[in-house]
Amino acid sequence: MENQSCVKIINEWDIVAARQLGRNVAKELGFGTVDQARITTAISELARNIYLYAGQGQICIEKIYDGGKAGLRIVAVDSGPGISDLRQVMEDGFSTSGGLGAGLPGVKRLMDEFLIDSSPGTGTDIKATKWLR
Amino acid sequence: MRVRIPILKLNDCLLVSIQWELDDQTALQFQEDLLHKIHETSANGVVIDLTSIDFIDSFIAKVLGDVINMSKLMGAKVVITGIQPAVAITLIELGIGLDDVLTALDLEKGLEKLQQELGE
């Protein structure tokens, strides 16, 4: 079984492709409609961040298993400008794009686990996980 | 060629039912189409039904919020109907309240609300 599928984010259409991929995997894993919506929305926000700030990058959707638990992990990677102040971007209401995205705090609330690794010049790596309850 | 969202006229109101997942361009095209249609038909009310929409991200929320304010500038009131439970939950968790937006459970109640708002 293929446990990871990826979509390259280069243009707006890739945002649609990434969230469709995520929704399909979420359905396959047996997530309910609310969690499917959470996952789809989180992917859309992360893919849009890549498109807006980094120009291009990649969204991968992984099926993960930990003990008896199954989950879905979104991995969003780009080699864009990176984020200099991680604490600032994790604050509600912070935006550099004039309020277009709801930002990373929103994505964090939608998912169960949220890890971000970023530094200026090297890009950003985000892992967001939702566990099947 | 991209499909456009149909905008129907019913008396002095416009009816829109969004039936499929919106991509950015379709959403922006809809914004423009709706404003032109309001201008063309002198409609004073609009109902946008989202029953078939199973998620709304911050971009689509912004486009919707903007088109509601733009319509208001032109003199037309907008009611949003049919927001699904999953959509309401994710929008609030995401931090988007769509405050001051008129909403109703379904199309029927939306039209009633619009009539009340327009004082008819």
* Major sheet of chain B: 5 strands, mixed
CATH class category of chain B:
Alpha Beta
Strand content range of chain B: 15-25%
Q: How do the strands line up in the largest sheet of chain B? A: 1-2-3-4-5
Read across the widest sheet of chain A, the strand sequence of neighbours is 1-2-3-5-4
Low-confidence stretches of chain B: none
CATH topology type of chain A? Heat Shock Protein 90
**Structural class given helices, strands, pairing of chain A?**
alpha+beta
Question: Measured on Cα atoms, how large is the radius of gyration of chain A?
Answer: 14 Å
Q: Give the proportion of residues in helices of chain A.
A: 25-40%
Number of strands of chain B: 5
How many distinct beta strands of chain A?
A: 5
Number of helices of chain A: 4
Assembly type of the shown chains?
heterodimer
Write structural notes for this entry:
The complex is a heterodimer of chains A (about 130) and B (about 120). Chain A is of the alpha+beta class and about 130 residues long. Chain A has one domain (about 5-130): 2-Layer Sandwich (Heat Shock Protein 90). Helices cover about 40% and strands about 30% of the residues of chain A. Chain A has helices spanning about 10-30, 35-55, 85-90, 105-110, and strands spanning about 5-10, 55-65, 70-80, 115-120, 125-130. A five-stranded antiparallel beta sheet of chain A has the order 1-2-3-5-4, with helices on one face. The longest helix of chain A has 22 residues, at about 35-55. Chain A is globular. Chain B has helices at about 25-40, 60-75, 85-95, 105-115; strands at about 5-10, 15, 45-50, 75-80, 100-105. Chain B has about 120 residues and is α/β, with parallel strands linked by helices. Chain B has a five-stranded mixed beta sheet, with helices on both faces. Helix content of chain B is about 45%, strand content about 20%. Chain B contains four helices and five strands. At the A-B interface, helix 1, helix 2 and helix 4 of A face helix 2 and helix 3 of B.
